[in-house]
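Notes to self after the Tuesday call (sharing in case useful).
The group wants a holo model before anyone commits to mutagenesis around the pocket. I volunteered. Ligand is flavin-adenine dinucleotide. Logging inputs and output together so the record is complete.
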Amino acid sequence: MAGCHLAFELSKFPAEVTLIEQGRIGRQGASSLPVALINPYRGRSGRASELDLAGLASFWRVAEELRQHGYEPGTTRSGVLRIASNRRQANSWQKLSGVRWLESQEVPAIYNAPYGGFMVEQGGWVMPNRLLGALVAAARQRGVRILENCRAGQLETHTGTYRIANSCESLEADLVVFCVGADDHPSLAPLGVERVAGDMIGLSSKALLPLPIAGAVYGASRGEQTFVGGNHRPIHQEDPSAPEKLRNALGWFAPHLKRAPQTNRWTGVRARQADRTPLLEQLGPGLWVFGALAGRGFLCSAHLSRQLAGKLLV
Ligand SMILES: Cc1cc2nc3c(=O)[nH]c(=O)nc-3n(C[C@H](O)[C@H](O)[C@H](O)COP(=O)(O)OP(=O)(O)OC[C@H]3O[C@@H](n4cnc5c(N)ncnc54)[C@H](O)[C@@H]3O)c2cc1C
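Result:
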């Protein structure tokens, strides 16, 4: 997500840009998840940060821009529902601005919402593979080179430019931006980024979630499948009971899905800094890193990429 958004933003400038992906775009890494929510009203408090609100606005701006140029970004501006888990949470959420509070009887009846909840009218969800495909197609059309199945190795400096060892061809650049997600790279010193795994399961049912739900457990329906996520676990510690826990957690909010058969399981790794801020940092002359997007890479990448493109090329 980070690399594709940045390539898209950089394609608007008169610069020669090459995007290097070690696999196939959107087939690995955290951005290969089946669905992603676009919701800035996160965490227990439900309060939105300035960054997340800026991310939301930029996300829809880019989706619109792609559509205008004939690329379908796979986004749905459905709104996002957050359901309160208890009376105390409901009391505190009723004071939030920027969202619409719903009393219990105002929440669509398919959900269990005894304490009410709120609607994020500007929220929605996205099919990541579609968005990545649209960004890459639009960037390519404006001259960005896309090298897939090409692993970027060591960087060497040579008379003010970088030589990038890689598995496909000889590459030199004045500017290099690492967008490697939760992966290590031989030319990146340890950045103090922690890695946390998370699962997402697909449930098969004709009864869907008419609105995606966000919170400690989140879910959205795509076709006749509902995807559910929300757990966090150490990367090397498998949890065979994760799917059952996710289904049960969803079942409290959406009882009609409690017995839906599980069709698949996806696991990804979130990279994050201790203070949860994204990493957008200059490491040296012409050398940058853009990542640690934690659980909000889809929400914030468009905004951060635009900022970074401005810094790189002004
Ligand atoms: C379970 C789960 C649920 C989530 N839900 C949401 C959500 O609802 N909404 C939201 O906004 N965010 C969500 N996120 C977070 C989001 O998925 C991430 O923040 C985002 O995908 C990170 O994007 P990225 O580009 O930084 O990393 P990645 O998607 O991991 O991309 C890094 C890419 O770099 C490539 N790469 C690595 N090393 C090299 C190399 N040496 N050479 C070439 N290529 C290389 C990798 O192959 C990979 O494709 C979720 C994450 C998880 C795990």
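Two things stood out.
The chain is about 25% helix and 30% strand.
The pocket of flavin-adenine dinucleotide is lined by residues 1-3, 20-23, 28-31, 33, 36-37, 151-152, 179-183, 185, 198, 200, 229, 268, 270, 291, 293-299 (CB under 6 Å).
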